[in-house]
Known about the structure:
The chain is an alpha+beta fold. It has helices spanning 25-41, 55-62, 67-72, 91-101, 142-158, 177-190, 197-200, 208-212, 216-222, 234-249, 295-298, 313-323, 344-355, 369-378, 389-394, 416-423; strands at residues 45-46, 52-54, 75-77, 83-86, 107-116, 128-137, 164-170, 255-256, 268-276, 285-291, 306-312, 335-339, 360-362, 383-387, 396-401, 409-412. The model has no long low-confidence stretch (mean pLDDT 95).
Amino acid sequence: MADEKVDTQVIRAPTGTHDVLWPQSSRWEALLAAFAVRARRAGFGLVLTPMFEDARLFRRGIGDESDVVTKEMYEFVDRGGRALALRPEGTASVVRAFVQHHPTTPWKAWYATPAFRYERPQAGRFRQHHQLGVEVLGTDDPDLDVEVIALAAGFYADLGLRRIDLAVNSMGCTGDRPRYVAALRDFLAGRATELCSEHRDRFSANPLRVLDCKRPECRAVTEDAPRLVDFLDEACAAHLARVRGGLDALGIAYRMEPRLVRGLDYYTRTTFEFAGLALESAQNAVGGGGRYDGLSEAIGGPPASGIGFGIGVERLLLACDAEGCFAVDPPAADVFVVDLTGGEEARDLVDGLRRAGLTALRAYDGRSIGSQLKQADRSGARYAVIIGAKELETGVVTVRPLRDEGAQETMPRAEIVARLTRLSGAG
Ligand code: HAM
């Protein structure tokens, strides 16, 4: 026999990923359904795109120098020698699909997707997280910025979240950003010694990154830094004014945050971020987005304005836990069939009940009556349908209410599906 070691180590989910098991996943189902309703109401349709793309899409779309691309992207070469990457976010793929299929504009798409980033895992930060998002392509109408922000804000409210902070900024456009970056670079050069160790020597290539730095040294310096909103050209300033006016008109509370630059390089004009104030501040961004008027062209498409947001599902649920809202009970069964005659009756009856639209469960492996009734109780079903030898012989079943006081009844086997459908209101 070959002297080979057999690998018997228990295999676990990779670091920074997690399983969501039933019944906790009921909350995910409910979340997705709530988001789909909101998105549909605003004219968005579901879009599905591949989980991996040509790696150049993200490099060109998100930015060659961004942390997401240089430090966090999962890249691989497939068996055909193609350089691919797992999607680190949803926007670039949706814009790629827009460019590839040129749908009628404005094109409003929503999505629910896993996203992959090689980050240091910690509470609220994972290597695979999930995003609910929307993108609108084909117009730069500032009213759409308001619509998109209102959609996210309304969704948080639907879940019962109260402690949500909305920060808004404008990243300017290609015309005014270089002037600002130059001014910021000059400012930082004068205070370089006060910056954190990461940025002290390396602020010059991309001074905007310093605004995003959470370290106290950089925070203190950028407190006094020039503000992008003061450098906007006339058109960008008017755009921002219209967005702010819209938010005010719709009663959406927000604050201007001149240091909000976000980590992806495609943003232009409106940017925004929602923070869950009940969460630890380092990982409290429960959603963010903005306008990306140059992204389509950056990936080889026609000029096309776009705006959207991504909401992190895991963080959102953590925020709900912290605020004690959006508790979702797993859906209870309608009927639990207890068969003491060998299982054929249960097999046929659950099938009939399910065809009629009821949630019907049963036990397996010829369990005892005690064990089956215990399972029935645990399932949360409203009724137990009991079939013993006597019932089988006389063509009846016993129906026992499990959740209310009603009396146990015996009814003809032939009528049970129709009667239970009526009783449970599924018919
Ligand atoms: P983002 O801010 O990078 O934006 O991510 C959106 C949200 O995903 C964050 O606010 C956060 O809730 C969640 N998130 C991000 N990274 C992680 C992680 N490692 N672990 C857990 N949650 C995370 C985008 O991805 C843009 N595509 C949003 C967008 C859409 N902009 C325009 N359209």
